[in-house]
Structures are given as structure tokens and as C-alpha cells.
Amino acid sequence: MSSYHIAVIPGDGIGPEVCKATVQVIKLALPKSIHLGFIEYPAGAAHFLSSGVALPDSTIEGCRNADAILLGAAGLPGVLYDDGTEAGQDTTLRLRPELDLYANVRPIKLYKGIYGPLKGDPAIDYVIVRENTEGLYASRGKGIVEGSISARDTMEITRKGVERIVRKAAEICMQRNGAPDDGKRRVTICDKSNVLRSFAFFRSIADEVLSEFPEIEVNYALVDALSMYLVTKPTYYDVIVCENLLGDIISDLGAATIGGLGLADSSEIGDQHGLFQASHGSAPDIAGKNIANPTATILSGASMLEWLGRKHADKLLLQSASKIRQAIATTFIQGNTLTADLGGDASTTIFVEEICSQLTLQNS
Ligand code: IPM
Ligand code: MN
Questions:
Q1: Ligand 1 atom index nearest CA of 244
Q2: Residues with beta carbon inside 6 Å of ligand 1?
Q3: Which domains does the chain show, CATH number per domain?
Q4: Element (DSSP H or E) covering residue 353
Q5: Torsions phi, psi of 5, nearest 5?
Q6: 269-280 pLDDT tens trace
Q7: Residue ranges in 31-81 assigned as alpha helix (H)
Q8: Going by CA atoms, what residue is nearest to atom 7 of ligand 1?
């Protein structure tokens, strides 16, 4: 019997709903010989309103001591610090550096049965590897505002930061089957090196690291051009590596091409810790209505099982993750139980029940 302890932060808006759905699906997918203990911790904008703190130290410690962290979503648009930034974002934005979650891995894959906005529904399947601990986000809370005259935030790019994120991108590339277009293993370095020195530095270190991987074709893309190519020729891409803010932006763009943020799987991992939450926010406009699409969080939950499975050489966890992915894929192919964002009329509950019945069919 193996046992793992998962810290769960339900958070704000639709966070608690999508977390609950994910825990339900994971429990059903696991064999009896694996026990996952889920312990909830508070954090987020609502917690800030009631306690004055968005991310309590006890939550950070709970996350540090857990085998993995599952997060619903955190932040509410109107709940701000005096500097105008969102208080609830402390949840994610402080956990990333605290736990050194340097790699934000975001697969962008169009499922069969899902009709994205692009003509001909191309076979999109690439991974964005977003640097998650430095870049422009490193300036959060440290930017300088000079009265009503000017404001400044500084981008930080370090050799260590680029080396480890590019190495992670290369490793992910070596585990995949290449780009859908031509089967070539390809890492695209996305930056704005034609304008800023920090990005030229990023590119030069990325080049150095990728020269250690002769099997990988190196591709360069400026972020503005890439934003167009992800729409016009998404199947050319295999793995894309980039700075933090650029990764934040292109991951929403990528998500739009595969049916929206409700489907966008995401893992935030370091050498010790792993945090799993969808790329989307807390969507307060649809919270509590039982209409949210929990797929992105469920897929991130599957990624959590894969990460734990690889870390602990536990095949049963890997099998459980693949069962979950299969159950979702089948539900989409059948196409009669989809949430409203995908053009269906199923509630969150009905959608989750369908995934659970697919899992039960696999178990029988
Ligand atoms: C993401 C989100 C976060 C970010 C927010 C919630 C702080 O947009 O994970 O992409 O900006 O990184
Ligand atoms: Mn984002």
C-alpha cells in the first residue's frame, strides 16, 4: 500500500467546484492499493477579506510538507492591495518562488470531438514551458511608482533560470513524438530578442543548452510573430520555451485554439515540489452556478498523478492518470455531455458523472 499526501487549496470563485470534481475523479481512478490523503488549506482573495492575509504561513508549510499540491483557482478582481494589484494572486505568485516551482508546463492539445475556432480543426499538440520564478514577474511588489509621473518594473533573467527551464523543455521534447506536422523534435525559443538585451541573453543561454541535444531542432520565434503562427500553423510546434510573462500570454492564446481555458492543463514543478492548477482564473461570474468546466483542473490532476508516479517510480499512479485522460477523451468523442463553454448543456455535476461512468466502465 503506498500513500501520498495532497495539499488542496480550493481558493476563490469556481476554484472549490473544480477542485471537488478533480478529487472525486482521482479517487475513482486510483486502485485500492494507493491511498491519497487530501488536506485542505485556506488561501485566496476571500481568505484575505476575512483574515487580512491571502496566503497564510501555515498554508505554505502545509504545501511544503505535502507530496503534491492541487489548487482550484485564486483571486477576485475587486480584491486589491493598496498598490492596485490583486491580493488573491499571492496564493500562486508566492508559492512559485517559495517552493521553487520554476517550470510551468502547459500542454496545448486539441481533443477529438472538440471543435476549436481554427479552420479545419488542426491536430494541435504542443507544450508551452513557461519559466515560472523570474522574468518580469520577479518585479512583483518591487516596482517603482514615482507619484503620477512614471512607473517601472524590471525583468530579471539569470543564467541559472534559463539553463534549468530550457533543460526541462528539452527533456519534455525528448519524451514526446515530435511536432504533429513532420514528427520532428523541435524546441522553439520564444522571446523578443530583436529589441531587449535581457531577451537576447535568454536566447544565447537557451542556444547553449540546446546544443547539448543534437536530436532536437532549434527554432526561434519572436513573441509577436509566434502569436500569429500559433493561429496560422499551430501543428508546426512541439515544445515552446519562454520567459514568464510571455508564457503567461501565449498560454491563453494557445488555450483559445483548443476550445478555451476550460481545457488547459497546467503543472508547476520544481526539483522538489509540484503544484497543479488549471491555467484559468477563478471566473467569479460563473461561480456557484454548477456550470464551470472542470476539465482543465481534472487534467492538471492527471498531470499531478503522472508527476508523482515518475518521482516515486509508481506505475499505478501513471496508469490512473492515463485512465483519467482516456475517460475525458471518450466523453469528448461521444460529445453528448459537454459543458456550456463547449456548446453543450451539461452541468458540472453531470459532466463529472459522465467521466466517472467512463472510469467505471474501464474498471469493469
Ligand atoms: C496563470 C495565471 C496567473 C499568472 C495568475 C493567476 C497569477 O494567469 O497561471 O497563468 O499570472 O501567472
Ligand atoms: Mn495566465
A1: 12
A2: 75, 89, 92-93, 248, 279, 281
A3: 1-101+271-364 (3.40.718.10), 117-257 (3.40.718.10)
A4: helix 348-363
A5: -115, 120
A6: 999 999 999 999
A7: 45-51, 57-65
A8: 89
Q: Please list the residues that pair with 109 across neighbouring strands.
A: 125
342-364 per-position pLDDT tens digit = 999 999 999 999 999 999 999 77
pLDDT tens digits, one per residue of 27-65:
999 999 999 999 999 999 999 999 999 999 999 999 999
* pTM score of the predicted model: 0.98
Ligand nearest to the CA of 282: 1
Query: From the alpha carbon of 268, which atom of ligand 1 is closest?
Result: 9
The Cα–Cα gap between 152 and 212 comes to: 37
Q: What is the DSSP secondary structure assignment for residue 58, as one 8-state letter?
A: H
Contact 74, 43 (CB under 8 A): yes
Question: In angstroms, rounded to a whole number, what is the distance separating the alpha carbons of residues 41 and 63?
Answer: 8
Mutate which of 71, 76, 79, 89 for ligand 1 pocket (most atoms within 8 A of beta carbon):
89
Span from the CA of 212 to the centroid of ligand 1 (angstroms):
31
Question: For 62-115, what is each residue's pLDDT tens digit?
Answer: 999 999 999 999 999 999 999 999 999 999 999 999 999 999 999 999 999 999
